Amino acid sequence: AQSVTQPDIHITVSEGASLELRCNYSYGATPYLFWYVQSPGQGLQLLLKYFSGDTLVQGIKGFEAEFKRSQSSFNLRKPSVHWSDAAEYFCAVGLVGIKAAGNKLTFGGGTRVLVKP
Amino acid sequence: NAGVTQTPKFRVLKTGQSMTLLCAQDMNHEYMYWYRQDPGMGLRLIHYSVGEGTTAKGEVPDGYNVSRLKKQNFLLGLESAAPSQTSVYFCASSSPGLAGGNSYNEQFFGPGTRLTVL
Questions:
Q1: CB contact under 8 A, B109 and A110
Q2: Do B109 and A107 touch (CB under 8 A)?
Q3: Mind listing the pLDDT tens digit for each residue in A2-58?
């Protein structure tokens, strides 16, 4: 069965500094890969997704992620964080090529980002 | 266009009580999902539906039942609530990908329901 690991439970970063969130997956093939963000008290919002092609993916709010097949990783980055980026971030994977899968996702445990002024 | 809405937003139950959580979407999506979110465990899929009248089990279905009588609604039921079901519940919906199953469309999430079982 597929699994997703986000090794960092909490990350604290200063406003204006760069941010990198780690995501590793375990799956027999290259899955579909997603990053979602959850602001306090809110539902999840899609930041970006990777299906194929260019391994560097641009998303909303200035985020980008890089897929590295050799490392089974899909790390999320932002060059300069804003106070509004304080949230919880979830990496997720979707299975490939199974029509009846219903677009199901498997989520990692999440990384909570705190932004210091 | 409200997207995905969930009712209620908060609920406190006593052990053994029953309740139903309602999810509604106005995007004409075929697929709908119920997740629970617990600290450090991310979101775990409880049940999902790939169309009106169909439901299927997800990762953690025990203690829950679901129904999809109308395309726009997906109900999650707890017949006899237990403290282990204290959680935040999220509903989501999406549309099917391209024919052949080799694509994924975004899941849109509701705001969540915070349930406490005493």
A1: no
A2: no
A3: 789 999 999 999 999 999 999 999 987 778 899 999 998 888 999 999 988 889 999
Interface of B with A in 29-88 (CB under 8 A): 31, 33, 35, 40-45, 48-50, 56, 58-59
Structural contact between residues A91 and A66, judged by C-beta atoms closer than 8 angstroms:
no
Q: How far apart, in whole angstroms, are the C-alpha atoms of residue A65 and residue B88?
A: 28
Q: Do A109 and B41 touch (CB under 8 A)?
A: yes
Strand partners, A18: none
CB B47 within 8 A of CB B34: yes
In degrees and rounded to multiples of 5, residue A69 shows phi and psi of: -60, -40
Residue (of A4, A19, A14) closest to A92 by Cα position: A4
Q: Which amino acid is at A114?
A: L
Q: Which chain B residues touch A46 with a CB distance below 8 Å?
A: 106-107
Which among A42, A45, A90 has CB closest to B42? Answer: A90
CB-neighbour burial class of residue B29 (10 A; exposed 0-12, middle 13-18, buried 19+): buried
CA dihedral B96, A110, A43, A34 (to 10 degrees): -30
Residue A32 is which amino acid? Y
Per-residue pLDDT band for A99 (boundaries 50, 70, 90) equals: very low
Give the separation between CA B26 and CA A67, rounded to whole angstroms. Answer: 33
